[in-house]
What does this fold into?
Amino acid sequence: MNTEIKNRRYSSRYSKPVLLFMLAYFIAFSSDFISMTMFVQKLPGMFFKGMTLLSIAISIYKIYFFDTFKRKEIIIYFTILVILLADYFKYGGFVFLQLFILAIAARDIDRHTILKFSAVYLFISIFLIFCLSELGVVDNLLFIRYLNGRQIIRQSFGTIYPTVFGSMIYFFVLQFVYIKKNNSYSSVFFIAIVALVINKYTDNRLVFLLLIFLIAYIILNNIFNIEKNNSRVFTSIMKYTFLTFSIIIPIIFVYLCYNYNPSSRFYYELNKLLSNRVYLSWKGFQDYPITLFGQKVAQNGWGGLKEVSVGFVYFYLDSLPIKLLLSNGIFMFIIYIVYNFSYLKVLFRNKNIRLAVIIIFIIAYDIIDEKSIRVSLNPFLILSLGYIFDYQKIKNDSSDIKGFEDKKGIML
It folds into this structure.
Protein backbone atom coordinates (compact mmCIF):
# COMPACT_ATOMS: atom_id res chain seq x y z
CA MET A 1 0.00 0.00 0.00
CA ASN A 2 1.43 3.33 -1.08
CA THR A 3 0.69 6.50 0.88
CA GLU A 4 1.87 8.76 -1.95
CA ILE A 5 -0.56 11.59 -2.75
CA LYS A 6 -1.83 10.63 -6.17
CA ASN A 7 -5.14 10.86 -8.02
CA ARG A 8 -5.72 8.44 -10.86
CA ARG A 9 -8.08 6.05 -12.54
CA TYR A 10 -7.07 2.77 -14.09
CA SER A 11 -7.21 3.30 -17.84
CA SER A 12 -7.79 -0.32 -18.85
CA ARG A 13 -10.98 -2.07 -17.84
CA TYR A 14 -9.04 -5.36 -18.03
CA SER A 15 -6.17 -4.39 -15.72
CA LYS A 16 -5.61 -6.55 -12.66
CA PRO A 17 -6.89 -3.97 -10.11
CA VAL A 18 -10.10 -3.46 -12.10
CA LEU A 19 -10.69 -7.20 -12.47
CA LEU A 20 -10.05 -7.74 -8.76
CA PHE A 21 -12.54 -5.05 -7.78
CA MET A 22 -15.17 -6.26 -10.25
CA LEU A 23 -14.80 -9.81 -8.92
CA ALA A 24 -15.27 -8.57 -5.33
CA TYR A 25 -18.23 -6.44 -6.41
CA PHE A 26 -19.80 -9.32 -8.35
CA ILE A 27 -19.55 -11.64 -5.34
CA ALA A 28 -20.97 -9.00 -2.96
CA PHE A 29 -23.73 -8.04 -5.42
CA SER A 30 -24.79 -11.66 -6.03
CA SER A 31 -24.82 -12.62 -2.38
CA ASP A 32 -26.76 -9.52 -1.38
CA PHE A 33 -29.36 -9.87 -4.12
CA ILE A 34 -29.93 -13.57 -3.39
CA SER A 35 -30.40 -12.77 0.31
CA MET A 36 -33.45 -10.66 -0.64
CA THR A 37 -35.07 -13.50 -2.60
CA MET A 38 -36.76 -16.72 -1.56
CA PHE A 39 -33.52 -18.56 -2.36
CA VAL A 40 -32.42 -17.36 1.07
CA GLN A 41 -34.49 -20.23 2.50
CA LYS A 42 -32.68 -22.79 0.35
CA LEU A 43 -29.12 -21.74 1.23
CA PRO A 44 -27.32 -21.96 4.59
CA GLY A 45 -26.38 -18.81 6.45
CA MET A 46 -22.69 -19.73 6.14
CA PHE A 47 -22.99 -19.31 2.34
CA PHE A 48 -23.80 -15.62 2.68
CA LYS A 49 -21.20 -15.06 5.41
CA GLY A 50 -18.55 -16.83 3.32
CA MET A 51 -19.39 -14.78 0.21
CA THR A 52 -19.20 -11.55 2.23
CA LEU A 53 -15.81 -12.46 3.73
CA LEU A 54 -14.50 -13.46 0.31
CA SER A 55 -15.60 -10.14 -1.18
CA ILE A 56 -13.94 -8.24 1.68
CA ALA A 57 -10.72 -10.28 1.34
CA ILE A 58 -10.42 -9.62 -2.41
CA SER A 59 -11.11 -5.91 -1.87
CA ILE A 60 -8.43 -5.66 0.83
CA TYR A 61 -5.94 -7.45 -1.44
CA LYS A 62 -6.65 -4.94 -4.23
CA ILE A 63 -6.38 -1.97 -1.83
CA TYR A 64 -3.13 -3.13 -0.22
CA PHE A 65 -1.19 -4.03 -3.35
CA PHE A 66 -2.49 -1.55 -5.91
CA ASP A 67 -4.01 1.56 -4.32
CA THR A 68 -2.49 4.88 -3.33
CA PHE A 69 -3.88 7.21 -0.68
CA LYS A 70 -3.82 10.80 0.41
CA ARG A 71 -2.65 11.25 4.01
CA LYS A 72 -5.96 12.91 4.83
CA GLU A 73 -7.79 9.84 3.55
CA ILE A 74 -5.79 7.46 5.72
CA ILE A 75 -6.73 9.36 8.88
CA ILE A 76 -10.43 9.52 7.92
CA TYR A 77 -10.58 5.89 6.80
CA PHE A 78 -8.86 4.67 9.96
CA THR A 79 -11.29 6.64 12.17
CA ILE A 80 -14.32 5.29 10.33
CA LEU A 81 -12.89 1.76 10.38
CA VAL A 82 -12.53 1.88 14.17
CA ILE A 83 -16.18 2.96 14.48
CA LEU A 84 -17.31 0.23 12.07
CA LEU A 85 -15.39 -2.44 13.95
CA ALA A 86 -16.91 -1.26 17.23
CA ASP A 87 -20.30 -1.37 15.52
CA TYR A 88 -19.62 -4.91 14.28
CA PHE A 89 -18.72 -6.22 17.73
CA LYS A 90 -21.75 -4.55 19.30
CA TYR A 91 -24.33 -5.06 16.57
CA GLY A 92 -22.97 -7.92 14.44
CA GLY A 93 -23.11 -8.24 10.67
CA PHE A 94 -20.72 -7.12 7.95
CA VAL A 95 -23.03 -4.79 6.02
CA PHE A 96 -21.31 -1.47 6.72
CA LEU A 97 -17.81 -2.92 6.90
CA GLN A 98 -18.26 -4.54 3.49
CA LEU A 99 -19.74 -1.37 1.97
CA PHE A 100 -16.91 0.76 3.33
CA ILE A 101 -14.14 -1.53 2.08
CA LEU A 102 -15.78 -1.86 -1.34
CA ALA A 103 -16.12 1.93 -1.54
CA ILE A 104 -12.41 2.34 -0.77
CA ALA A 105 -11.52 -0.24 -3.42
CA ALA A 106 -13.77 1.54 -5.96
CA ARG A 107 -12.18 4.99 -5.57
CA ASP A 108 -10.01 4.81 -8.68
CA ILE A 109 -12.10 2.40 -10.77
CA ASP A 110 -13.78 3.95 -13.80
CA ARG A 111 -17.31 4.92 -12.76
CA HIS A 112 -18.78 3.98 -16.14
CA THR A 113 -17.65 0.38 -15.69
CA ILE A 114 -19.28 0.12 -12.26
CA LEU A 115 -22.53 1.86 -13.25
CA LYS A 116 -22.96 -0.16 -16.43
CA PHE A 117 -22.32 -3.38 -14.58
CA SER A 118 -24.71 -2.49 -11.76
CA ALA A 119 -27.59 -1.41 -14.01
CA VAL A 120 -27.31 -4.38 -16.38
CA TYR A 121 -26.77 -6.98 -13.66
CA LEU A 122 -29.60 -5.58 -11.54
CA PHE A 123 -31.99 -5.64 -14.51
CA ILE A 124 -31.02 -9.24 -15.36
CA SER A 125 -31.34 -10.30 -11.70
CA ILE A 126 -34.80 -8.72 -11.33
CA PHE A 127 -35.96 -10.27 -14.60
CA LEU A 128 -34.66 -13.73 -13.61
CA ILE A 129 -36.23 -13.77 -10.15
CA PHE A 130 -39.53 -12.56 -11.64
CA CYS A 131 -39.49 -15.35 -14.25
CA LEU A 132 -38.50 -17.99 -11.69
CA SER A 133 -41.38 -16.94 -9.44
CA GLU A 134 -43.85 -17.11 -12.34
CA LEU A 135 -42.53 -20.57 -13.28
CA GLY A 136 -42.93 -21.75 -9.68
CA VAL A 137 -39.23 -22.38 -9.08
CA VAL A 138 -39.38 -19.99 -6.12
CA ASP A 139 -42.46 -18.83 -4.24
CA ASN A 140 -44.35 -15.72 -5.22
CA LEU A 141 -45.60 -14.75 -1.79
CA LEU A 142 -49.01 -13.11 -1.58
CA PHE A 143 -49.89 -10.67 1.17
CA ILE A 144 -53.34 -9.20 1.77
CA ARG A 145 -53.81 -5.63 2.94
CA TYR A 146 -57.12 -3.95 3.74
CA LEU A 147 -57.14 -0.25 2.93
CA ASN A 148 -60.25 1.93 3.16
CA GLY A 149 -62.49 -1.13 2.95
CA ARG A 150 -60.66 -2.53 -0.09
CA GLN A 151 -58.77 -5.81 -0.20
CA ILE A 152 -55.38 -5.41 -1.85
CA ILE A 153 -53.28 -8.41 -2.86
CA ARG A 154 -49.56 -7.71 -2.81
CA GLN A 155 -47.11 -9.94 -4.67
CA SER A 156 -43.42 -10.44 -3.90
CA PHE A 157 -42.42 -12.00 -7.27
CA GLY A 158 -39.77 -14.27 -5.79
CA THR A 159 -38.40 -11.76 -3.28
CA ILE A 160 -39.00 -12.03 0.46
CA TYR A 161 -41.57 -9.21 0.54
CA PRO A 162 -43.48 -7.01 -1.96
CA THR A 163 -41.71 -3.81 -0.86
CA VAL A 164 -38.36 -5.50 -1.54
CA PHE A 165 -39.33 -6.07 -5.17
CA GLY A 166 -40.58 -2.48 -5.37
CA SER A 167 -37.28 -1.20 -3.98
CA MET A 168 -35.30 -3.20 -6.53
CA ILE A 169 -37.28 -1.54 -9.32
CA TYR A 170 -36.90 1.89 -7.70
CA PHE A 171 -33.11 1.71 -7.60
CA PHE A 172 -32.98 0.38 -11.15
CA VAL A 173 -35.04 3.39 -12.27
CA LEU A 174 -32.66 5.77 -10.46
CA GLN A 175 -29.71 4.20 -12.27
CA PHE A 176 -31.61 4.35 -15.56
CA VAL A 177 -32.33 8.06 -15.08
CA TYR A 178 -28.72 8.85 -14.21
CA ILE A 179 -27.23 6.80 -17.06
CA LYS A 180 -29.51 8.15 -19.77
CA LYS A 181 -28.01 11.29 -21.26
CA ASN A 182 -31.30 12.88 -22.24
CA ASN A 183 -34.33 11.92 -20.16
CA SER A 184 -37.01 12.85 -22.66
CA TYR A 185 -40.74 12.31 -22.36
CA SER A 186 -40.20 8.70 -23.38
CA SER A 187 -38.40 8.28 -20.03
CA VAL A 188 -41.38 9.90 -18.31
CA PHE A 189 -43.72 7.41 -19.98
CA PHE A 190 -41.48 4.47 -19.01
CA ILE A 191 -41.23 5.55 -15.36
CA ALA A 192 -44.98 6.23 -15.19
CA ILE A 193 -45.74 2.69 -16.41
CA VAL A 194 -43.26 1.24 -13.90
CA ALA A 195 -44.78 3.30 -11.07
CA LEU A 196 -48.31 2.14 -11.89
CA VAL A 197 -47.27 -1.51 -12.12
CA ILE A 198 -45.37 -1.33 -8.82
CA ASN A 199 -48.33 0.33 -7.11
CA LYS A 200 -50.82 -2.21 -8.47
CA TYR A 201 -48.93 -5.43 -7.80
CA THR A 202 -46.86 -4.62 -4.70
CA ASP A 203 -48.86 -1.73 -3.23
CA ASN A 204 -45.59 0.04 -2.51
CA ARG A 205 -47.29 3.42 -2.22
CA LEU A 206 -44.31 5.36 -0.94
CA VAL A 207 -42.05 4.24 -3.78
CA PHE A 208 -44.91 5.09 -6.14
CA LEU A 209 -44.99 8.65 -4.75
CA LEU A 210 -41.22 9.03 -5.08
CA LEU A 211 -41.39 7.91 -8.71
CA ILE A 212 -44.13 10.48 -9.36
CA PHE A 213 -41.86 13.19 -7.90
CA LEU A 214 -39.02 11.88 -10.08
CA ILE A 215 -41.26 12.23 -13.14
CA ALA A 216 -42.08 15.79 -12.08
CA TYR A 217 -38.36 16.59 -11.81
CA ILE A 218 -37.65 15.20 -15.30
CA ILE A 219 -40.47 17.29 -16.79
CA LEU A 220 -39.24 20.44 -15.02
CA ASN A 221 -35.69 19.73 -16.17
CA ASN A 222 -36.86 19.38 -19.77
CA ILE A 223 -38.69 22.71 -19.53
CA PHE A 224 -36.18 24.79 -17.55
CA ASN A 225 -32.93 22.90 -18.24
CA ILE A 226 -32.16 22.70 -14.51
CA GLU A 227 -29.07 20.50 -14.85
CA LYS A 228 -27.26 22.96 -17.15
CA ASN A 229 -28.49 26.21 -15.64
CA ASN A 230 -25.49 28.56 -15.40
CA SER A 231 -27.11 31.01 -13.00
CA ARG A 232 -25.00 31.24 -9.85
CA VAL A 233 -28.00 32.39 -7.83
CA PHE A 234 -30.13 29.43 -8.94
CA THR A 235 -27.31 26.94 -8.38
CA SER A 236 -26.58 28.37 -4.92
CA ILE A 237 -30.25 28.20 -3.89
CA MET A 238 -30.46 24.60 -5.12
CA LYS A 239 -27.19 23.68 -3.43
CA TYR A 240 -28.09 25.03 0.01
CA THR A 241 -31.62 23.63 -0.24
CA PHE A 242 -30.22 20.16 -0.92
CA LEU A 243 -27.54 20.42 1.78
CA THR A 244 -30.14 21.56 4.32
CA PHE A 245 -32.49 18.77 3.25
CA SER A 246 -29.75 16.15 3.78
CA ILE A 247 -29.32 17.25 7.40
CA ILE A 248 -32.75 18.44 8.49
CA ILE A 249 -35.03 15.72 7.07
CA PRO A 250 -33.45 12.73 8.89
CA ILE A 251 -33.21 14.73 12.14
CA ILE A 252 -36.81 15.96 11.90
CA PHE A 253 -38.05 12.43 11.23
CA VAL A 254 -36.14 11.11 14.25
CA TYR A 255 -37.60 13.93 16.37
CA LEU A 256 -41.16 13.20 15.20
CA CYS A 257 -40.81 9.48 15.86
CA TYR A 258 -39.26 10.02 19.28
CA ASN A 259 -42.08 12.37 20.29
CA TYR A 260 -44.90 10.40 18.68
CA ASN A 261 -48.26 10.93 20.36
CA PRO A 262 -50.88 8.23 19.63
CA SER A 263 -53.74 10.62 20.53
CA SER A 264 -52.60 13.37 18.15
CA ARG A 265 -54.52 13.80 14.88
CA PHE A 266 -51.35 15.05 13.17
CA TYR A 267 -49.38 11.99 14.20
CA TYR A 268 -52.28 9.73 13.24
CA GLU A 269 -52.30 11.07 9.68
CA LEU A 270 -48.50 11.05 9.43
CA ASN A 271 -48.30 7.48 10.70
CA LYS A 272 -51.02 6.43 8.28
CA LEU A 273 -49.23 8.10 5.37
CA LEU A 274 -45.98 6.33 6.24
CA SER A 275 -47.61 2.90 6.73
CA ASN A 276 -47.22 2.74 10.53
CA ARG A 277 -43.49 3.51 10.40
CA VAL A 278 -43.76 6.41 12.86
CA TYR A 279 -45.43 4.26 15.51
CA LEU A 280 -42.98 1.38 15.06
CA SER A 281 -40.03 3.78 15.30
CA TRP A 282 -41.52 5.29 18.48
CA LYS A 283 -41.94 1.79 19.90
CA GLY A 284 -38.26 1.18 19.16
CA PHE A 285 -37.33 4.25 21.17
CA GLN A 286 -39.57 3.03 24.02
CA ASP A 287 -37.94 -0.42 24.11
CA TYR A 288 -34.29 0.43 23.38
CA PRO A 289 -31.92 3.20 24.54
CA ILE A 290 -29.85 5.29 22.16
CA THR A 291 -26.21 4.19 22.46
CA LEU A 292 -22.88 5.30 21.02
CA PHE A 293 -22.05 2.07 19.16
CA GLY A 294 -25.41 0.38 18.75
CA GLN A 295 -26.99 -2.79 20.04
CA LYS A 296 -28.89 -5.82 18.84
CA VAL A 297 -32.52 -4.88 18.25
CA ALA A 298 -34.87 -7.87 18.04
CA GLN A 299 -37.10 -7.43 14.99
CA ASN A 300 -39.96 -9.56 13.71
CA GLY A 301 -41.05 -9.00 10.12
CA TRP A 302 -43.12 -10.77 7.50
CA GLY A 303 -40.20 -11.17 5.08
CA GLY A 304 -40.08 -14.70 3.65
CA LEU A 305 -43.41 -15.46 5.36
CA LYS A 306 -41.81 -17.54 8.08
CA GLU A 307 -43.87 -19.63 10.47
CA VAL A 308 -45.64 -17.38 12.92
CA SER A 309 -45.42 -18.63 16.48
CA VAL A 310 -47.88 -17.99 19.28
CA GLY A 311 -47.34 -14.52 20.69
CA PHE A 312 -45.74 -13.19 17.51
CA VAL A 313 -45.78 -9.39 17.45
CA TYR A 314 -44.75 -7.56 14.30
CA PHE A 315 -41.94 -5.10 14.90
CA TYR A 316 -39.59 -3.89 12.19
CA LEU A 317 -37.58 -0.69 11.77
CA ASP A 318 -37.86 0.23 8.10
CA SER A 319 -36.52 3.77 8.31
CA LEU A 320 -32.75 3.93 7.80
CA PRO A 321 -32.10 6.92 10.15
CA ILE A 322 -34.05 5.18 12.94
CA LYS A 323 -32.34 1.86 12.27
CA LEU A 324 -28.91 3.50 12.35
CA LEU A 325 -29.62 5.37 15.58
CA LEU A 326 -31.03 2.39 17.50
CA SER A 327 -29.17 -0.58 15.98
CA ASN A 328 -25.83 1.03 15.07
CA GLY A 329 -25.56 3.96 17.46
CA ILE A 330 -25.03 7.71 17.48
CA PHE A 331 -21.66 7.58 15.70
CA MET A 332 -23.10 5.72 12.71
CA PHE A 333 -26.01 8.16 12.54
CA ILE A 334 -23.55 11.08 12.51
CA ILE A 335 -21.46 9.39 9.79
CA TYR A 336 -24.63 9.00 7.72
CA ILE A 337 -25.46 12.72 8.02
CA VAL A 338 -21.89 13.87 7.31
CA TYR A 339 -21.56 11.44 4.40
CA ASN A 340 -24.70 12.73 2.66
CA PHE A 341 -23.68 16.35 3.24
CA SER A 342 -20.14 15.80 1.94
CA TYR A 343 -21.31 13.83 -1.09
CA LEU A 344 -23.78 16.53 -2.14
CA LYS A 345 -21.26 19.33 -1.53
CA VAL A 346 -18.73 17.68 -3.85
CA LEU A 347 -21.35 17.02 -6.52
CA PHE A 348 -22.36 20.68 -6.60
CA ARG A 349 -18.71 21.73 -6.69
CA ASN A 350 -18.30 19.57 -9.78
CA LYS A 351 -21.65 20.72 -11.21
CA ASN A 352 -23.12 17.22 -11.30
CA ILE A 353 -26.69 18.30 -10.63
CA ARG A 354 -28.22 15.08 -11.87
CA LEU A 355 -26.36 12.88 -9.41
CA ALA A 356 -27.12 15.36 -6.61
CA VAL A 357 -30.83 14.95 -7.43
CA ILE A 358 -30.44 11.15 -7.37
CA ILE A 359 -28.84 11.34 -3.92
CA ILE A 360 -31.72 13.50 -2.67
CA PHE A 361 -34.18 10.87 -3.91
CA ILE A 362 -32.17 8.22 -2.06
CA ILE A 363 -32.20 10.28 1.17
CA ALA A 364 -35.98 10.69 0.83
CA TYR A 365 -36.27 6.93 0.30
CA ASP A 366 -34.18 6.32 3.44
CA ILE A 367 -36.96 7.82 5.56
CA ILE A 368 -39.27 4.96 4.56
CA ASP A 369 -36.84 2.08 4.00
CA GLU A 370 -33.27 1.03 4.65
CA LYS A 371 -32.32 -0.76 1.44
CA SER A 372 -30.08 2.01 0.13
CA ILE A 373 -27.30 0.29 2.09
CA ARG A 374 -27.73 -2.81 -0.08
CA VAL A 375 -24.67 -3.47 -2.26
CA SER A 376 -26.80 -4.80 -5.11
CA LEU A 377 -29.13 -1.79 -5.23
CA ASN A 378 -27.10 1.35 -4.68
CA PRO A 379 -23.90 1.70 -6.77
CA PHE A 380 -23.83 5.43 -5.96
CA LEU A 381 -22.85 4.47 -2.42
CA ILE A 382 -19.96 2.36 -3.68
CA LEU A 383 -18.72 5.22 -5.87
CA SER A 384 -19.02 7.94 -3.24
CA LEU A 385 -15.49 7.99 -1.77
CA GLY A 386 -13.96 8.43 -5.22
CA TYR A 387 -16.13 11.52 -5.64
CA ILE A 388 -15.62 12.95 -2.16
CA PHE A 389 -11.82 12.70 -2.36
CA ASP A 390 -11.64 13.92 -5.98
CA TYR A 391 -10.43 10.68 -7.49
CA GLN A 392 -13.15 11.02 -10.09
CA LYS A 393 -14.23 14.59 -10.77
CA ILE A 394 -17.72 14.40 -12.21
CA LYS A 395 -19.25 17.03 -14.38
CA ASN A 396 -22.73 16.86 -15.77
CA ASP A 397 -21.68 17.08 -19.41
CA SER A 398 -21.26 14.68 -22.29
CA SER A 399 -17.95 13.37 -20.92
CA ASP A 400 -19.70 12.24 -17.75
CA ILE A 401 -21.86 9.72 -19.57
CA LYS A 402 -19.75 8.93 -22.58
CA GLY A 403 -20.52 5.54 -24.00
CA PHE A 404 -23.99 5.17 -22.53
CA GLU A 405 -25.87 6.47 -25.55
CA ASP A 406 -25.33 6.89 -29.24
CA LYS A 407 -25.90 10.18 -31.09
CA LYS A 408 -29.61 9.45 -31.39
CA GLY A 409 -29.96 9.17 -27.62
CA ILE A 410 -30.49 5.40 -27.65
CA MET A 411 -29.04 3.50 -24.72
CA LEU A 412 -26.20 1.15 -25.65
